[in-house]
Amino acid sequence: MHNADYLELDGRLAFVESRPGDRPSVLCLHTAGQSGVQYRHVAAGLAELGFGVVVPDLPGHGRSEPAPGGPISDLSWYTDWCVRLITALGLERPYVLGCSIGGSIALDIATKMSSALSGVVALDPSGVLGSDGRPPPPPALEDSGSPSMRDRTYYGTVEACGRSVPPERVELIAQMHCREDWHITVSDIHGALTHDIRDALAGITCPVRILAGEDDFFVPPSRVRRIADLVPHAAFELMPGIGHYPMEEIPDFAERFERWVKDFEGVAP
């Protein structure tokens, strides 16, 4: 049975969708500025394969109330929030699946509670390595610099999708992404640019698979490969013809996820 409800966490209401299953639950984490709606097709597919599924909207995103202090620009804050969510829901050794900032948060969760996870699948993680150059300026919105935030999101999403994705699917993904709150998005992006957990990755003991879309406009596959190289036992995979949003671009994503975690099952961290 599909359940969608609000859970009070840190004094604020978080919107969480869940589906029961006989296999471990999959905690699905969305991208910057977006919400759990990115997993609307994947969640049903995973449930049909027997996985439990948990899809939260991070604070300030989608239908969740904002964090007490306003927009978050620290991905590790989201990580700690997710750890509290896992505890509050009583999830037993879940998988953590995340894309972009969600992939970075998934890896961050693994640095804190590997023994409590069945494994991590990180898609095009956008943080982890910190800033490669000068630290980025604090997040800010300037109308003169970005007269149309909607167009910036729309065209950026179109360019970030892979060449194998049909145009009508790209159009739908881009339209759905335009429903974001840019005050949240710019803070999330700042969080990705400053997120640095390189020194903690070697301590991850649960199974990890890190994937990169070959056509990702936002996060170069070479950067994702650098992240995978820092997790001693991580499996890395390049996805031809796929961009920055694999769970939205790939029709049979749930089946692929099942194959990706096949080697995870029965492995004790």
Percent range for β-strand residues: 15-25%
Q: Judging from the principal axes of the Cα atoms, what is the shape?
A: globular
Q: Which assembly state applies to the chains in this document?
A: single chain
What's the helix count?
10
Instruction: Please report the distance between the alpha carbons of the first and last residues.
Output: 31 Å
Please compute the radius of gyration using only Cα atoms. 17 Å
- How many beta-strand runs? 8
Number of domains: 1
Structural write-up:
By secondary structure, the protein is of the alpha/beta class. It has one domain (3-260): Alpha/Beta hydrolase fold, catalytic domain (Rossmann fold), CATH 3.40.50. 36% of the residues lie in helices and 18% in strands. The protein contains ten helices and eight strands. An eight-stranded mixed sheet has the order 1-2-4-3-5-6-7-8, with helices on both faces. α1 links the parallel β3 and β4 (51-56). α2 (75-89) crosses α3 and α4 runs antiparallel to α5 (167-177). The longest helix has 15 residues, at 75-89. It starts with a strand and ends in a 9-residue tail after the last helix. The model has no long low-confidence stretch (mean pLDDT 94).
